[in-house]
């Protein structure tokens, strides 16, 4: 579903990503790295927000550089900043996004995603009246409303309380049974809870690309947090 080949992005002389390659199919792929490692740049290229300097990226067989419209039709994106129209009501905002995607069964699909994301109690409120956690749910609902084959989720559980986390993680796992999902997060427990495979990127280069099980075995069944620290050359604050 996602193919990345020798992808490089330069900002002036700085390499944000440096000749990276990976594939992702159905399931949940954890895309990890410290701040500034190149995660957001990669996701912005895959979602056609910015062009690469060199290399190729494709989504569902469509080239991200030359077939941006087709890529966007097949992808759902929840960015970390999650921009929203705060004066819109929840159902109104979902109807707006459904209209952009030219859905025909709008009311039925809105009801489905409200149920999936647990927005029922808040569906008649303006987005500006919602807590951060519920705004995050609205962003996720907007990302999945057109039933895309690929989801790219950047910190999707930001602001959720522990009870909300359980439901959203369960939803992500369920969606991953039939969709290709790239999940970027700094919460290692979240990766362990929902991801099948893991990519760790550091200083623009991929330093690990493996199933979660194989990655642990390779590193002596260490915790993912310790493996992350080891591979990205970080040291704990207490050291």
UniProtKB/TrEMBL annotation:
<dbReference type="InterPro" id="IPR003439">
    <property type="entry name" value="ABC_transporter-like_ATP-bd"/>
</dbReference>
<dbReference type="InterPro" id="IPR003593">
    <property type="entry name" value="AAA+_ATPase"/>
</dbReference>
<dbReference type="Pfam" id="PF00005">
    <property type="entry name" value="ABC_tran"/>
</dbReference>
<dbReference type="GO" id="GO:0016887">
    <property type="term" value="F:ATP hydrolysis activity"/>
</dbReference>
<keyword id="KW-0813">Transport</keyword>
<comment type="similarity">
    <text>Belongs to the ABC transporter superfamily.</text>
</comment>
<feature type="domain" description="ABC transporter">
    <location>
        <begin position="2"/>
        <end position="228"/>
    </location>
</feature>
<keyword id="KW-0067">ATP-binding</keyword>
<dbReference type="GO" id="GO:0005524">
    <property type="term" value="F:ATP binding"/>
</dbReference>
<protein>
    <submittedName>
        <fullName>ABC-2 type transport system ATP-binding protein</fullName>
    </submittedName>
</protein>
<dbReference type="InterPro" id="IPR027417">
    <property type="entry name" value="P-loop_NTPase"/>
</dbReference>
<keyword id="KW-0547">Nucleotide-binding</keyword>
